[in-house]
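chain below, 164 aa
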Amino acid sequence: MNRFLLRLMLALLILTACVPEDPMRTVIQVSDTRQSGSIPPELQWVEQTVIRAGEVRFTRGGRVEDSQVNGGEWSLTAPPEEIARLLASLSAVDPRTLRRIEPQDPPDGGGARSIVLTYADGSTLSLDFDPGVEYEGAEPILQALGDFAGCLEWPRDALAQIRP
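prediction:
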């Protein structure tokens, strides 16, 4: 009986001492949205790039009805291995290391950016870069998105932000 209790206590000790690791969170989609700052209403714009395996979509629209913004939706071309590299880089970022830093004196106006990572389990991580806001630990995300932007091929009609 004593041996049984000893083995049972040893097994319980081993089981309680082993804390499972957080599973690697796989990013399956990233959305990068940017908004113009303080400019005349007819020139204000919102742009969104959505990246997922095998697809990159870009949309742009104006903020008012009679906007001069070159609005539309386009499919962008990127090498599949670059999309895979981007999603893997974003998956490697530990969300617990990110910390929002508010400005002491927020600027009047200015553009905004929002990055949303969507994980395979359906959860999301949002980084909202309001004017003057920064995130400690976001450098790998921003660097990966910047590097990826250099791989994109744009349709000619999507290049101009304002209609000619």
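Helices lie at 2-17, 80-91, 139-149. The mean pLDDT is 89.
thats it, cya
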